[in-house]
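Encode chain A's predicted structure.
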Amino acid sequence: MTPYSRAAILAVGSELLTPSRIDTNSLFITEQLNLLGIEVAFKTVVGDDREELANAVRIALGRVDLLVCSGGLGPTDDDVTREVVAEVLNRALVEDERIASRIRTRFESRGMTMPDINRRQAMVPVGARVLANANGTAPGLWIDDGTRSVILLPGPPRELKPMMMSLVEGPLGERAPGLSLVRRVIRITGRTESHTEEAMRPLYAEWAGRPVPIAATILASLGQIELHLSARAASREGADAALEAASREVSEVIGLDVYSRDGRALEEVLGDLLIARALRIAVAESCTGGLVTSRLTDVPGSSRYVDRAVVTYSNEAKIELLGVPAALIEQHGAVSEPVALAMAEGIRSRAGANVGIGVTGIAGPGGGTAQKPVGMVAIAALVTGTSRSRTFSFIGGREQVKFQASQAALDMVRRMLVV
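Encoded structure for chain A:
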């Protein structure tokens, strides 16, 4: 059998084109295909529209030799995936009585009669292989069309995932190219995308000529940069070794701005550092409104190092809850490094913690002045007797300013702990 070289994924469902539903199935399918060394060339989300779906299927089959579709296999009129794919491949649909009987039995086991519309789920394109679904009524389908294959999977993740896993261990694995495609995410903060790209260019050229070539893609957002590395090798171990060497080289070039070489979030990295040093942290926040603390406590087991936090939004709260001197606020303003330092010390001393963070700023969109514009944030950290503070000028809207401020606060402590 000819190995698959490139795949495409179609996520089917009009709900996936709304803000209320996110397509996570494609991520899982991509991961499983990559483990087999099958590259995913592109993904498409398409609604429950016959013409649009047919066009998407035709385009995909013109570019790849494996198409995986998720969703649209239910019993209702808007579940059109099997019908459209059968039409594109010029296959008639016939009812498989074994599927209809299984669905009927499933309903009867719950004391119910199968609605007649569920017979649609028993319709199978001529020549298709039926994929059993132990977790739902809709079976999957595998259709070979010359050297190409189309796989139809149900949309619910609890049905799709075990079905996909069985394919990876069976027929998909048999037609894998014999290579393992492995990816790694390196996370960077404290520098711009252009500065990162400039520093990385010499490595790109070197990686391309190695026995196990490394491909790299930069994804930038306000507050952090992700460097996605991928390697294809005869074994997963070989790809992992190549990526490990490449990630170390990134650290040598980028330096301390690299905070994670294994995809971990900044709050996870900081949490591990605090645990390793048996330190406890306390946080005083103003403009971030609790975001720093929320990120710290998003990590399971964070009670081992997070002691307490307060949101002191008003000047009165800073004075009453943290002991920030009113004269200090009067002299420097609430958004200033002296006040941020006093906030960090106030919460640290009250908690009896080793580490204190203070954050105060102007998240916007209003409240800024010529001297202290929107996006200006003062951040301070105290770590076992050592202090550091800095005033930042962040860009973007309110949420972006808050995220960048939280990122800078966590990163300030990280840097103090690793040097």
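The mean pLDDT is 94.
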